[in-house]
Amino acid sequence: MAAATFAMAQVNFGIKAGVNTFDLHDEILESDLKDFTVAFKEAQYGFHAGVFLRAKIGPVLLQPELVFNSDNVDYSFEKDGVDQTIFNQKYRAIDMPVLAGIKLGPLRILGGPVGHYQLDSVTDFKEEIQSETFSDKVTVGWQIGGGFDLKNVTVDVRYEANSGKLGESLNIGGQSIAFSQNRNRLVASIGYKF
Fold first, then answer.
1. Which of 83, 85, 147, 183 is 20 to 30 A from 155 via CA?
2. First and final C-alpha spacing in the chain
3. What is the DSSP letter of 28?
4. What total of structural domains would you count in the chain?
């Protein structure tokens, strides 16, 4: 029955790319080190690129995706209360959203779970700070948003809420720094469906 339903569906394959940024607030990262201070400075724009499959069955849409994602966050680092340094941390992952929604005229409303497989995190500040592997390689979140199509061009804007934290991705002076931030993001993309 599922195969027959899928055969009757209008199916499009497409490619997509876009920008994303963390929805972060100021926070000093937790540490027992008294002579170091690390804080979120600013969420920079990252990028993503990947493929999607969209099946339309009447007004219902199903859209699984496979996307490479790279996020950037700037941190401020102070040692002994002086010498503030800004350094950038990059987080790279494979994202797998599985979205469902409806089409209302030219507009689409979609939502659903998204899985993240963490590839790595890289910092450009190498003296006292080193990158660590993620404590959780696989995390799950949710995306909700909307979009529209102009012929074969597709545009989407989504908000993503994640249950996973940023991860234990920094090591300062030989000690892990605990992140308490969830990785909520704003995601905007443009694509082309074949």
1. 183
2. 26
3. B
4. 1
Determine the Cα–Cα distance for residues 109 and 37; give it in Å rounded to an integer. Answer: 42
In a domain, 81, yes or no: no
- This prediction has a pTM of 0.79
Q: Under a CB-based contact definition with an 8 Å cutoff, are residues 167 and 136 in contact?
A: yes
Could you tell me which of 95, 5, 81 has the C-alpha nearest to residue 47? Answer: 95
In this structure, what CATH number is given to the domain that contains residue 56?
Answer: 2.40.160.20
Residue 188 structural domain = 10-22+45-71+91-193
For residues 108 and 166, which has the higher predicted lDDT (pLDDT)? 108
Closest CA to 89 of 176, 23, 169: 169
The partner residues of 1 in beta bridges, in order of sequence, read none
The distance from CA 177 to its chain's CA centroid, rounded to whole angstroms, is: 21
pLDDT tens across 21-45, in order? Answer: 877 655 555 455 556 666 667 778 8
